[in-house]
């Protein structure tokens, strides 16, 4: 039992939690908002609603005729495999980078699940102000965004420190 909670397995478990949370919230959103009115969380700023996205981020290629389902699915599958291998190869002492990668992996697989099963991704979180609105998104999108931001922070602020400590350990 203890071995499945050790790196890299713990990071795959985190990705599975993200996938489960993503799918559960999408099922809830479909039941609540597919045929009903949006739910105002913060009036004038945040609401839960329902949207189907056949494209990629920000509905890119949403009206391309159907081929994008398989194209984006293949990209997500290849990317998920790459991230899985990257996670597997990370040193056990690392925490920030594998946490970020697990979030990205969980989000990518969560949206891949929708895309392959349904042909579109279910979105339900809407942020807006006046006439401006951000594209509707979901838990998987949030996980991908937070994980990507964490990787950028790692690269900008911590990569050199880790590199220096590795070099000094080799001497």
UniProtKB/TrEMBL annotation:
<keyword id="KW-1003">Cell membrane</keyword>
<comment type="similarity">
    <text>Belongs to the peptidase A8 family.</text>
</comment>
<feature type="transmembrane region" description="Helical">
    <location>
        <begin position="132"/>
        <end position="158"/>
    </location>
</feature>
<dbReference type="GO" id="GO:0006508">
    <property type="term" value="P:proteolysis"/>
</dbReference>
<keyword id="KW-0645">Protease</keyword>
<feature type="transmembrane region" description="Helical">
    <location>
        <begin position="70"/>
        <end position="88"/>
    </location>
</feature>
<keyword id="KW-0064">Aspartyl protease</keyword>
<feature type="active site">
    <location>
        <position position="123"/>
    </location>
</feature>
<dbReference type="Pfam" id="PF01252">
    <property type="entry name" value="Peptidase_A8"/>
</dbReference>
<feature type="active site">
    <location>
        <position position="141"/>
    </location>
</feature>
<keyword id="KW-1133">Transmembrane helix</keyword>
<keyword id="KW-0472">Membrane</keyword>
<dbReference type="InterPro" id="IPR001872">
    <property type="entry name" value="Peptidase_A8"/>
</dbReference>
<comment type="pathway">
    <text>Protein modification; lipoprotein biosynthesis (signal peptide cleavage).</text>
</comment>
<protein>
    <recommendedName>
        <fullName>Lipoprotein signal peptidase</fullName>
        <ecNumber>3.4.23.36</ecNumber>
    </recommendedName>
</protein>
<feature type="transmembrane region" description="Helical">
    <location>
        <begin position="100"/>
        <end position="120"/>
    </location>
</feature>
<keyword id="KW-0812">Transmembrane</keyword>
<dbReference type="GO" id="GO:0004190">
    <property type="term" value="F:aspartic-type endopeptidase activity"/>
</dbReference>
<keyword id="KW-0378">Hydrolase</keyword>
<dbReference type="GO" id="GO:0005886">
    <property type="term" value="C:plasma membrane"/>
</dbReference>
<comment type="function">
    <text>This protein specifically catalyzes the removal of signal peptides from prolipoproteins.</text>
</comment>
